Amino acid sequence: MKNFFKNKKNIIFIFVFIILLAIFGAGSMLDLMHNTFIIRNLTNKSANLDKQYKDLTKEYQEILSGKTNYIEDNARIKYNMSAPNEFEFRIKK
Questions:
Q1: DSSP line for 28-89
Q2: Does the pTM exceed 0.70?
Q3: Exposed end of the chain (fewer CB within 10 Å): N or C?
Q4: Which residues are within 8 A (CB) of 68 and not within 5 positions of it... i.e. 6 or more apart?
Q5: Rounded to 5 degrees, what angle do the CA atoms 51, 53, 54 make?
Q6: All residues at 6 or more sequence positions from 62 whose CB lies less than 8 Å from its CB, including other chains
Q7: What angle do CA 74, 78, 81 make, to 5 degrees?
Q8: CB neighbours of 83 closer than 8 A, spacing ≥ 6?
């Protein structure tokens, strides 16, 4: 092994090999880190979409069941609307 390092060609070969490994190995590592970050973001988005899907499915089933007056309730709550000839009283504390 000592004879291997005494030869100048071998030392140059090892030096070039280490430089090439550092250049191409670093790029691969950066790609791996970037892909891991993307996978984590996509997993979070997927979980959020699953939750949103469940909520919307539940809301859709409520609309189909007809148990509540969905349109009127949403109009009153979300858009502060009222029926014709209906007055709203607000009491200040």
A1: HHHHHHHHHHHHHHHHHHHHHHHHHHHHHHHHHHHHHHTSS-HHHHHHHHHH----TT----
A2: no
A3: C
A4: 62
A5: 65
A6: 68, 70
A7: 80
A8: 72
Within 8 A by CB and 6+ apart from 88, the residues are 82
- Domain extents for the chain? 2-79
Can you read off the two tokens belonging to residue 62? 């409520």
Q: How many residues does the chain have?
A: 93
The model's confidence at residue 39, banded by pLDDT at 50, 70 and 90, is: very high
* Residue found by looking up tokens 């979070």 in the block: 44
- pLDDT of the residue at 55: 95
* Location of structure tokens 């949403």: 74
